Every structure is written in C-alpha cells, then in structure tokens.
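Every protein is a chain of amino acids, and every chain bends into a shape of its own. The fold becomes a row of whole numbers, each drawn from a learned catalogue of backbone shapes. The protein below has been through that process, and both of its lines are reproduced in full.
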Amino acid sequence: MRRRDFIGLLGAAVAWPHAARAQAATDYPNRVIKLVHGFPPGGNVDVVARLMAQEMAKHIGQTIIVETKPGIAGNLAAEAVAGAAPDGYTLLLVAGLHPAVAAVYHNLKYDPLNSFAWISTVSFYPFVLCVRKDSSFKTFADLISAARERPGGVTSGTAGNGSISHMTTELIARLAKVKFLDVPYRGEAPALTGTLGGEVDLMIATSTAALPHLRSGALRGIGVTGKTRWKDFPDIPTLAESGLTDFEVISWSGLAAPAKAPQPVIARLHAEIERAIKVPEVRARLEGFGAEVRSTTPAEMRDLVARQIALWTRVADDAGIRLD
C-alpha cells in the first residue's frame, strides 16, 4: 500500500467515530430514552420526572421511561448515568441535594460537576423553617435568642446526616453564631412527623412537604430560605429579612446527561424542556408543589451546581460533616 493511501485510510479511521457521533446526533432520538432519578417512587422528584417525561415524549417523538434507582442520597442514580454512554438516551433528573451530597461524600465514583452535561433546570423551591403551631418561637429572632441562651438546647429535625436540611440548618447556625442540636431522621417525612409530634423544636422543610401542614395550620413557618418571599405564603419573611443578610438556599430540579453528550442532543433536550414547562397543565402542576418554574441555559445550570458544591463544601468542612 502506498504511503499516501495509508495516511488517507488512517485519517478516515480517526474521523469515522466523530462522523458517526454527528450522524447519531442528527438522527436523535430514534429509540426509547431513559430518565433516571435516585429517590423512591411517589416522592416529589419522581413526580417531576414522570411529568417531564410524559410531556417531553409528546413532542420529541420517542417514549421516555422513568427509572428509579434510590440509594445513598441519589448517588446510585448519578453514578449510573455518569457511566452511561454519552448519547442522550440515558438522562438524570437531578435534585438540589446533588451538590450537598458532593460536599459530604468523599468516595464518590463520579465527578459531581464534570461527569455530566448539564441541560436545564425545571423548577426551584425554597425551604421553610417550620415549628409546631403551638411553639413559643413566633419569629426567627425568638428562635435565635433561645439558641443563644441554651447552646445545643434547641433541637432541629433533619432528613438525615448530610441531607440538605441538615446542611441548611448548619449554615443558619454558623451565620447566626448559634448551635442547634441536630436530630437526624430517616428522611424528610419522618422528620416532619417528629416536628408535628413535638419531638423536635424545628425543621427545615422543602416547600412541597411543608405546604399541606402550613395550609392546615399544624405547622407555622417563621422563615423562608429564598431571596424573595414565597408566593404561596407571602406573610412568611425571608431569613435575609430576618437578619441573615443576603441569605439564600434553594432546592431545584433539572436534567443532565453524561458528559460529552453531543451538543446538538443537549440543544434538542434543552428546547424540549423549555417547551414542556410552558405547557399550562405542566406549569400548573409544578407550581402546585410550591415551585417557581424556570429553565436555565446549560452554562447557567453548570454554574449553579458549581456554586452550590462550593457553598456546601464550606459548610461541611466547618461543621465536620463527612460521609464515606
């Protein structure tokens, strides 16, 4: 074989995988898409995943099946998607817990930022600092005053060690220069039960979980963690208004793919997410959970994750929170 022919064949061989990926992206999607998340069926993340999968499938032209892979605070699902083929046929429904997990788990088998191609957020949720309806804490100032008088004497129920409710409570304590006694439960629902039953003095709850108990009056909200007041309960002040200047902690949901997924695929999925969340029935359902429905660009979502990983890493280091 002549040298020129050999070089031509070699160049074609090198170019072929890129051409194949480009063709695959052009044909996308031509088979079933799998949307994975790391939480039990029936919870908020599962509902969001199924709502988005159903609506996106109507326009994208392929079935999107939802696969639950609960375990280790969503790590199993994230690990599975990080290791999947970067072709856009395996996606991750990411929750706001993802950056907190990255900060406290030190033996992850994936990079929590760089193992993923970030696509778009879907919804944002504030957290609510809740107490029982008969609590002596009427305001955030009451709570902080009691915590200063009794260091470690005010109990805070959380969804577990290293959970976002635990991390948020630790951040509030650090900024307010107080110490709460952390009482970890096996998830948010048991922590809510403990708060309602008077086992603990307070808890940081997701807006979705807190909503029915706030509406019934069983819980009283004394602060929301967003920068603005929660539209469903505008009478509850923000923690920033209550003395924690510039305080903001929000949860969110969004979609990601394995890193190196083709850019045309990411662009197509981003467009489908934006279309889906503008459908009135979808938006109304998401807003019914207490959410602000809002997309971001892939770059904005990546920046959000990076900033929250940095925040929760500082909190975990200060509080000595580490999980293996």
